[in-house]
Amino acid sequence: MNKWKLISIILIGIIVLEGLVLFISQHRYITVTNLSSGNSAKLGSKLVMAVSSPEYRSTPLIGNYPFVINSGILTKNLANYTLIIAYVDINLSKAKVGESFMVYPSINVGSNVPVQFFNNPILNVTIVKNTIFSMDGSEYLNFSIKVNITALNSMGEGGITTILDANPPESTALSTIYGNTLLLVGFHAYNSSVIRLEFYVAPNTVS
Fold it and tell me: Which residues cross the membrane (predicted)?
């Protein structure tokens, strides 16, 4: 009986060890000491994760908001790279300055992110400007947001002033997450009623 019990314990140990090896092979960790970069918070001595597979929620929006039309995930195929992007469509006529919403950004392959951000990548987004005006016979949108990266206790702000119905999406790097890894936001004003906001984390070489 003791022999079979010993064999069972050994087999369980082998299974646990294989699972641990698989996890480590998928997620590589490095230690960072006394890091301070741009508008990122000081990390002190923290673990940073090298992301080897994209992390995202199929429904990135957290909660329900009367000014949000929908949210989801889209992909953009670049040369030898697939960029995963979380988006939120905003109803401009309903969105008021000062209103906010929470969203999960996508975290793309090749990103290096602090573990606390990887485990809790929530962004608290506040609308700072939302104005439509006319100039030289064209309609313009002046729209900007402020983003609180809750896990890192850091802030970023960005926006666009653009002719409606004329320009492709514009991306702005709002914050350095770590090293060459950025939090980016894309702004795509479809018309005077709808703007799409895109939230994603990626290395600066592919963003």
Answer: 6-24
Question: What sign results for the dihedral spanned by CA atoms 31, 34, 38, 39?
Answer: positive
Radius of gyration of the chain (CA): 21
Handedness of CA 16, 18, 23, 29 (dihedral sign): positive
Q: State how far the Cα of 91 lies from the Cα of 100, in Å rounded to an integer.
A: 13
Instruction: Tokens 């670049």: give the residue.
Output: 78
Place of tokens 């919403």: 101
Contact 178, 40 (CB under 8 A): yes
Euclidean distance between CA atoms 138 and 147, whole angstroms: 29
CA-closest candidate to residue 194, choices 67, 13, 26? 67
Q: pLDDT tens digits, residue range 4-54?
A: 555 556 655 555 444 443 333 333 333 332 233 333 334 454 699 899 999
The residue type at 143: F
The DSSP annotation for 141-163 comes to EEEEEEEEETTTTEEEEEEEEEE
Q: Which residues pair with 201 in a beta bridge?
A: 107, 183
Distance set, CA 119 to CA 69, 133, 186 (Å): 27, 41, 23
Q: What is the pTM for the complete model shown?
A: 0.77
